[in-house]
Amino acid sequence: MILHLLIARFTPVKTIFLTGHMLWWFPFVIVAGGVEGGMSGIPLLILGAVLSACYWSFMPWIMRKYVWDATGDDSFLIGHPTGILSMVSGFVAKRVGNKEKSTEDLKVPENLSFFREISITGALVMFLMNIVVGIIAPVLVPEGGNLVMFAVQAGLNFGAGLLIMLYEVRLLINQIIPAFQGIAEKVVPGAKPAFDVPILFNYRPNAVIIGFIVAMITSTILVIIVNTTNVFGILIVPLVITSFFECGGAAVIGEGQGGLRGAVIGTIAASFVMDLLVGVSAVLFSTTIQNWILIFGGNDLSLWGIIGRGLGSLFWGI
């Protein structure tokens, strides 16, 4: 963290990474990569510290223009492992999209207008997904439980969680950003805070839901293909968390670059990268955090873990 602050203070990269849990997760995966590569002791700690600081500093800064295009607000950055997926989405969307038609312009019949509320739509999507998964794999439904009620509860929990999260995002925008700017001007002049990806969701909520649905469909099809053909030699599972948060953010970025078409096609491209990253990283983390990366990977965590693994192998024996 000290190195990260020094980079912000003395270089043009003015990023302060404020997504708390990611300050733990990135050293975690990078150290795991180093262990897989054969490193240990002080060199391993140095690897984890340096790579983590580089990620916290440079990734939010690299994707800043995509974020500002999507939000119209240059007061903050995104500090979340959606980085590589969002940049893929933005890159593709800019070239194939059409800004004239936005996800937020989609017409919804008046009697269905409540579906424009992201928490309701998200709850419905989770309900349907749990129904499908429960039919395919009944063992996942609690013993003695009812599939429909289980799916209803899962959907309601998801929707309630979204409401709480979005309320916190509004609080963040209205109070924490101004407070941060006052402190930053004294410590790191010109620095911009990098926040968790849900801060994007209020700007283009339709894009988030579209991205989630597209990512789930695309990645599930890809998961079936790679598992059937045994591409990675291990069983890959659909990445629900990454599909919502990382690909939801990627869809917002894609929408900012190419409207509705950009959000859809950009998310499809990001989903391919997501499945590739989770498959490769799961193989490379076979003796450490394989199960963990199968749930939370397919994003910058996988990518930087792979980099850590490569550097660990390069400096093996130090």
From TrEMBL:
**What keywords sit in the KW lines?**
Cell membrane, Membrane, Phosphotransferase system, Sugar transport, Transmembrane, Transmembrane helix, Transport
Gene Ontology biological process terms from the UniProt entry: phosphoenolpyruvate-dependent sugar phosphotransferase system
Q: What family classification does the UniProt entry report for this protein?
A: Belongs to the UlaA family.
Chief location of this protein within or outside the cell: membrane
Instruction: Please give the superkingdom of this protein's source.
Output: Bacteria
Recorded hits in Pfam families, A to Z, give: EIIC-GAT (PF03611)
Subunit and partners: Homodimer.
Subcellular localization: Cell membrane
Job of this protein: The phosphoenolpyruvate-dependent sugar phosphotransferase system (sugar PTS), a major carbohydrate active transport system, catalyzes the phosphorylation of incoming sugar substrates concomitantly with their translocation across the cell membrane. The enzyme II UlaABC PTS system is involved in ascorbate transport.
* UniProt keyword Transport, yes or no: yes
Query: TM segments?
Result: 15-35, 42-63, 114-141, 147-167, 207-226, 232-253, 265-286, 292-316
The keyword Transmembrane is annotated on this UniProt entry: yes
Give the way it sits in the membrane. Multi-pass membrane protein
Please tell me one Gene Ontology term that the record gives under cellular component.
plasma membrane
- What is the recorded name of this protein? Ascorbate-specific PTS system EIIC component
